[in-house]
C-alpha cells in the first residue's frame, strides 16, 4: 500500500512529539525516584542518565513490539519507511531512537577523543594541529545550527521533524485523516521562515565573532614578533656600541687581530695599515704581516 497521499502534517507530528515528551518526562522522574532509593551518591552520579533511559525505554518498547507511541496514537499517525509502503523494521526504528537521543553525546565524545589525540601527538606539525583543532571546534558547535535549520525546513515543507528520521528515511503518515479538520498551515510556514532567518543571523554573528578572534590573535602574534625584532635590534645596537673599538676605523673590531707588542686591531684595518708602513699603529714598533695573529672567539 502506498501512503504518500496520507502524509502527516506539521500539527500532527508536533503534537505527537510533545505528547511523547510529556510521558517520557514523567517516566524519567519515576526512574529518578527509584535511583534515589539507592543512596544520594548514586543519585548524584547517575541521575543525568535517567532521561536517556526513559527515552530509550519508552520508544524502544513501542518499536520492538510494532506499536505506536502514545503520542502517535493520540494524533493518529504511524511510521512508514522511505518508500511509504510498509512499517519500518524494528532495527531501523531502534537506530532512529539511538540517533535521536544518544547521537549528540556520541558525536561530542568522538570529537573530544579526536581533539585529545591531535593535542597529544607531537608528530603533527603545529600549523596542521591548529587547523584541525579549529575544524573540531566548528564541528562541536555545528549540531545546534544544523538542527535548527532542519526544523525550519520541517515547518516549511511538513517533512521530517527529527533529524534522526531524515537520516534513517522514516516518515509519518496520518491514518485518520478523514477526522482531521482542514485549516491553514501558513502559520507554520511563517514560523519556518522566521526560524531560518534567526539561525542564519545567529550563524553570521558567530562567524563574525570567530573572524574577530582570529584577527585579534593574528594581531597579537604580529605584535609579539615586532616587539621581539625591536628588542633584538636594540640589543644588537647596544652590543655594537659597547663592543671594543678599533682605533684605525673607530668601529667595533671585526676579526680582532693581535700584534707582538700586544695591541688589537681589525684584521683588514691592520693589513691595510701595513701596506703603507711596517710598524704598529700605536707604539711604532717594527711589525710585519707574518707576525699578526688573528684571534678566534674573541670579542
Short description:
The protein has helices at 10-36, 40-46, 50-64, 70-75, 90-120, 126-157, 163-168, 186-242, 267-276; strands at residues 77-80, 171-174, 256-258, 264-266, 293-294.
Q: What do these coordinates show?
A:
The chain has 299 residues and is mainly alpha-helical. The protein is built from 9 helices and 5 strands; from the N terminus they run ααααβαααβαββαβ. The protein has helices at residues 10-36, 40-46, 50-64, 70-75, 90-120, 126-157, 163-168, 186-242, 267-276, and strands at residues 77-80, 171-174, 256-258, 264-266, 293-294. It has a 3-stranded antiparallel sheet. A hairpin with a 5-residue loop joins strand 3 (256-258) and strand 4. Helix 3 (50-64) runs antiparallel to helix 5 (90-120) and helix 6 (126-157) runs antiparallel to helix 8 (186-242). The mean pLDDT is 85.
Features:
two-stranded antiparallel sheet; 299 residues; rod-shaped
Element pattern in H and E: HHHHEHHHEHEEHE
Helix content: 55-70%
Question: If strands are numbered along the chain, what order do they take across the biggest sheet?
Answer: 4-3-5
Which class do the helix and strand fractions yield? mainly alpha
What percent of residues are in strands?
A: 5-15%
Instruction: Give the radius of gyration.
Output: 39 Å
Shape: rod-shaped
Overall pLDDT score? 85
Oligomeric category = single chain
Number of helices: 9
What is the number of E strands? 5
Instruction: Give unreliable regions as ranges.
Output: none
The end-to-end distance, rounded to whole angstroms, is: 96 Å
Amino acid at each position: 500500500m502506498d501512503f504518500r497521499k496520507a502524509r502527516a502534517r506539521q500539527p500532527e507530528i508536533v503534537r505527537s512529539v510533545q505528547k511523547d515528551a510529556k510521558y517520557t518526562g514523567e517516566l524519567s522522574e519515576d526512574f529518578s525516584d527509584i535511583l534515589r532509593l539507592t543512596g544520594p551518591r548514586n543519585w548524584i552520579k547517575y541521575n543525568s542518565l535517567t532521561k536517556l533511559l526513559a527515552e530509550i525505554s519508552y520508544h524502544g518498547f513501542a518499536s520492538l513490539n510494532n506499536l505506536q507511541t502514545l503520542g502517535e496514537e493520540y494524533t493518529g499517525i504511524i511510521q512508514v519507511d522511505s518508500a511509504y509502503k510498509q512499517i519500518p523494521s524494528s532495527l531501523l526504528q531502534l537506530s532512529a531512537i539511538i540517533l535521536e537521543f544518544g547521537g549528540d553525546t556520541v558525536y561530542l565524545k568522538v570529537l573530544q577523543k579526536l581533539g585529545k589525540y591531535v593535542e597529544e601527538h607531537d608528530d603533527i606539525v603545529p600549523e596542521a594541529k591548529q587547523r584541525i583543532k579549529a575544524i573540531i571546534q566548528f564541528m562541536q558547535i555545528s549540531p545546534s545550527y544544523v538542527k535548527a535549520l532542519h526544523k525550519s525546513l520541517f515547518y516549511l515543507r511538513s517533512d521530517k521533524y527529527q533529524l534522526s528520521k531524515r537520516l534513517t528515511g522514516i516518515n509519518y503518515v496520518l491514518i485518520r485523516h478523514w477526522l482531521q479538520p482542514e485549516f491553514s498551515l501558513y502559520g507554520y510556514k511563517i514560523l519556518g521562515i522566521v526560524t531560518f532567518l534567526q539561525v542564519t543571523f545567529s550563524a553570521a554573528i558567530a562567524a563574525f565573532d570567530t573572524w574577530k578572534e582570529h584577527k585579534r590573535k593574528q594581531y597579537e602574534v604580529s605584535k609579539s614578533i615586532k616587539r621581539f625584532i625591536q628588542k633584538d635590534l636594540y640589543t644588537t645596537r647596544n652590543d655594537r656600541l659597547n663592543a671594543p673599538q678599533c682605533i684605525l676605523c673607530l668601529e667595533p673590531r671585526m676579526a680582532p687581530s693581535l700584534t707582538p707588542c700586544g695591541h688589537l686591531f681589525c684584521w683588514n684595518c691592520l693589513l691595510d695599515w701595513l701596506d703603507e708602513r711596517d710598524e704598529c699603529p700605536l707604539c711604532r714598533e717594527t711589525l710585519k704581516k707574518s707576525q699578526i695573529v688573528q684571534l678566534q672567539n674573541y670579542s
